[in-house]
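Key result, reporting period 2: structure in, sequence out.
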């Protein structure tokens, strides 16, 4: 049989495994962020102990990501005044709908009510206060800020 038709193993045909990408810029987060990261690290360490060999490398890759994020964390206090910033809860009106979001660090964000400070919506809101209008998506005064709460 020709060598061209022989396959040594399936490993050589698998996609390469890359590290989890780390967001660019500083690793800013709210005071609650380090505890969230510590909990994720603890959960991953427990999973690594009981994982099969096939799953262990992926878990270790995730663990490297979270250890890096813990080491580079920069806690930011919410603004002292009534302007929006990291750690603020902002209620606003956009396209006729009223919505409340919290502005947080990359690793604290979720899909519902907590968005990263680097998101376009958060960038539009940072620095605004109650009663302010903000430009968004190429439209001037698209956002009306109704209230800003800082813990």
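The corresponding designed sequence is given below.
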């Amino acid at each position: 049989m020709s060598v061209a038709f022989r396959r040594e193993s399936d490993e050589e045909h698998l996609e390469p495994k890359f590290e989890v990408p780390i967001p660019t810029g500083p690793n800013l987060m709210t005071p609650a962020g380090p505890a969230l990261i510590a909990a994720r690290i603890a959960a991953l360490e427990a999973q690594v102990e009981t994982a099969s060999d096939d799953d262990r490398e992926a878990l270790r890759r995730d663990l490297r990501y979270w250890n890096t994020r813990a080491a580079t964390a920069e806690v930011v206090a919410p603004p002292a005044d009534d302007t929006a910033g990291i750690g603020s809860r902002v209620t606003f009106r956009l396209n006729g709908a009223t919505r409340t979001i919290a502005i947080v660090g990359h690793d604290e964000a979720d899909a519902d009510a907590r968005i990263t400070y680097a998101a376009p919506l958060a960038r539009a809101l940072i620095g605004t206060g109650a009663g302010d209008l903000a430009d968004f998506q190429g439209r001037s005064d698209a956002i009306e800020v109704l209230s800003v709460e800082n813990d």
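The first strand starts at residue 27 and ends at 29. The beta strands are 27-29, 73-75, 88-94, 97-104, 114-116, 133-136, 139-150. This case is discussed further under Risks and Mitigation.
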